[in-house]
Amino acid sequence: MFDLEKNIRPNIRNLKPYQSARDEFAGLAEVALDANENPFGFGLNRYPDAGMKKLKSKFAAFRGVKADRLIFGNGSDEIIDLLIRTFCEPGNDQILIFPPTFGMYRVCANINNVGIIEKSQTAEFQIDFEQLRPSLDDPSLKLIFICSPNNPTGNTIEKETIVNIAKSFDGIVVLDEAYIDFGGASMIDESIPNLFILQTFSKALGLAGIRLGVGIGASEVIAVLNKVKPPYNINTLTQQRAVEALSKTEETKRQVASIVSERDKLSQKLSSINGIRNIYPSKANFLLVEIENAALTYTSLCEKGIIVRDRSKEIENTLRITVGSPDENARLIAALREEDHVPVGRVGKCVRSTSETQILADVNLDDPSNTFINTGIPFFDHMLEQIARHGSLGLNVISNGDLYIDPHHTIEDTALALGSAFNDALGERKGIERYGFLLPMDDSLAQVGIDFGGRPWLEWEATFRATHVGEMPTEMVSHFFKSFTDTARCNLNIKVEGDNDHHKIESIFKAFARAIKMAVRKDESGILPSTKGKL
Ligand SMILES: *Cc1c(COP(=O)(O)O)cnc(C)c1O
User: Fold this and answer.
1) Pocket of ligand 1 (CB under 6 A)
2) Residues 6 or more apart in contact with residue 43 via CB below 8 angstroms
3) Of 1, 118, 125, 171, whose CA is between 20 and 30 Å from 98?
4) pLDDT over 90 (residue 173)
């Protein structure tokens, strides 16, 4: 039977908690001369609300629990430490964990000189209750930490097992539900007095920066923890931002839904990459991925500016990958694809990074099998796909630009990077046809002549009626080609007639692609197509 009093460390059982005058004062303080604050300050001159009344009532309503069952910490990390300091006598008592799991349980136990019993998980990352049962009678065991969904494996632990453990144990079962909003069912409603739940504002609620964790337990347990907790551990700004977030839970729900759908897409894409052996099913916002050589992949991703977590020490050759934004996930996939793809043919690459945009562009003039385009501007992506398809080129373009301003920098810099990649792929420009042109028909007539002669020039004869097609400004079309000629060092002569702006632009891009295809075609002679001796 769970007996709270017996679990509390003796010195804490007898502890008189810190009392401020404001705790004792029940009325509305009109003149606060009790806490030696500066009466002027900068709007934050008063100590935070130690009772966290607003935050508590908001969170209580959000999760449907009573406010006296809640305690807040400077991240869940502080509550983990608080639990250990309240219930475990240093040098004597122990906690129990199920590795591989969240690292802070161990760290906090070590800091407090508290022992750690480790029980391994089953092959399915579950807890074997029968195997655990004898340890539950150890009188020095005070806290059991269960993480569900578990970090780093991503799976949930069977509810029945957790209930069984709590009912057969005289200490406290801490159930860490940091990832509960991404999948799985919370056990917040279970009325088990020794079940203590941890949640956090750092994951689904999107506020890792404010450092706010929540403990949800029996009110008697909360009362004990409140005696140990520093009185003003949650600052005013954190309380304000958390209350704001709890007024926007519809937006949070949308974000969580989008992360969950990205998780499933990411898992699908990862499964097609060479060297990836297993993707563990996940109920969290990360994927644990087993890969042929995790250390090597980890380092090469780092070199490309992508950081994931190597969990190989716990589960051989695994990486834990957080589900990011669609753009971030696309960059990860592109980087991993590059890894297992040894290019054949004339390849050129450009990585361009400024404060306005980060662009990755590579082109393969001889192998069209690998194309991936994501600039964040759908119509522009569609146009770049024309270049790949009609130019019979492999083209990877990932642009991460300041689209919140407008598409200008992204389109311009993508063109510059693309031109540089072509310049790189063409090398000394020996053995190419050099010229290309085409006159394709649609409802519009586009004519694109190209000369990879080493000098930039753009002749432009095209007007558009619309200001935009999709999100792409039509004035950026000529700007795209001008920028391309600058870095690809080519002449372009472009004319278009017709009615429909979408068709006109698309036919320019198609004609451009065909012209490139002709101009970069290998010429059997292998000689430099110039009498100057240099291009
Ligand atoms: C991220 C995480 C937390 C959150 O810790 P905070 O201190 O609240 O940011 C807690 N538990 C697990 C298992 C986590 O992965």
Assistant:
1) 75-77, 102, 147, 151, 176, 178, 200, 202-203, 208, 213
2) none
3) 1
4) yes
